[in-house]
Structures are given as C-alpha cells and as structure tokens.
Amino acid sequence: MPPSADDLPGKKPPQRRPRRGGGRKPGKQPRDPGAHMAWREVPDTTVDHYPKGRCGCGKDLAEATDLGVRYSRQVADLPEARAETVQHDRHEVRCACGRAHVADAPRSQAHRARSPTG
User: Fold this and answer.
1) How many domains does the chain have?
2) Average per-residue pLDDT in the chain?
3) What are phi and psi of 4, to 5 degrees?
4) Structural domain containing residue 98
5) Chunked mean pLDDT (size 10), the chain, 118 residues
6) Which helix (H) or strand (E) holds 76?
7) DSSP string, 30-83
8) Is residue 88 a part of any domain in this protein?
9) Closest C-alpha to 85, from 36, 49, 41, 35
10) Which of 19, 38, 91, 104 has the most beta carbons within 10 angstroms of its beta carbon?
C-alpha cells in the first residue's frame, strides 16, 4: 500500500518486537561495581565561588563575612594529553543580619551528578 494509506481508519499498527539481548535493561547493571574518579588532595587549580546578589534583608552579599568553604567539587578535564583538576570551592558567608548564604554551583557543573568528584 502507498505511504498515504498508513493512517487509514481500521488499519492496525505494526506489532512491537520484543527486546533483544535476553531481557537485560541498557546501562549499568545493579550487580556491577560502580566507578568514580578519586579525590585529589592537591588539585591543579582551585576556583573560589562566593554568593552573589543581596540578602533577604537587602544588604549586598559582597560585604558579608566569609565563613569558609562549605562544599567542594573536583572536575577532571582532559585538555590535550594532560588531565587538569579544578576544585570549585563554594563559600558560605554570613550577612550582618545573621543569615548564612552559600554560593551557587557553577553553571557548567550544575547538571552533573551529586558525587564529590565528577
């Protein structure tokens, strides 16, 4: 039949074919061990990220007190033939009103898994 007759009333859709491969789902299997990159104590580069904008009280967070690194994430990239590890330190600051704020994750890292290394 011509392709224009594919959606005629009464025509049955083709039957679904069963999956090949013995019924295993695609991807990592539950019994298989996981894999991850090891945390490096001394990264090649460290990038500090501070909260931006204003607190709910209206004060600028650039003037807030730095409470130190709250979260760290390491990303291993392969530029050319050498791996470069960049540690992203997300600082927490305390506003004069007493509220604490943590820097947002960098946009390039926000979509990655929530493991400490990516």
Assistant:
1) 1
2) 82
3) -65, -15
4) 38-105
5) 70 73 75 83 93 94 95 86 85 95 82 52
6) strand 65-77
7) TTSPP--PPPPSS-SEEEEE---SB-TTS-BGGGSEEEEEEEEEEEEE--TTS-
8) yes
9) 41
10) 91
**What is the per-residue pLDDT for 89?**
93
Domain assignment present for residue 26? The answer is no
21 within some domain: no
Q: Report the alpha-carbon distance of residue 47 to residue 89 in Å, rounded.
A: 6
The span from the CA of 6 to the CA of 10, in Å, is 10
Tokens 């069963």 locate to 18
Asked if the structure places residue 92 within a domain, the reply is yes
pLDDT of residue 61: 95
For residue 78, the number of C-alpha atoms closer than 13 Å in the C-beta half-sphere is 3
Neighbours of 65 (CB within 10 A): 10
Q: What is the pTM of this model?
A: 0.43
Encoded tokens for 44: 């090649």
Q: Give tens-digit pLDDT for 58-87.
A: 999 999 999 999 999 998 887 677 778 889
Residues found in the chain: 118
Gap between the Cα atoms of 68 and 51, Å rounded: 12
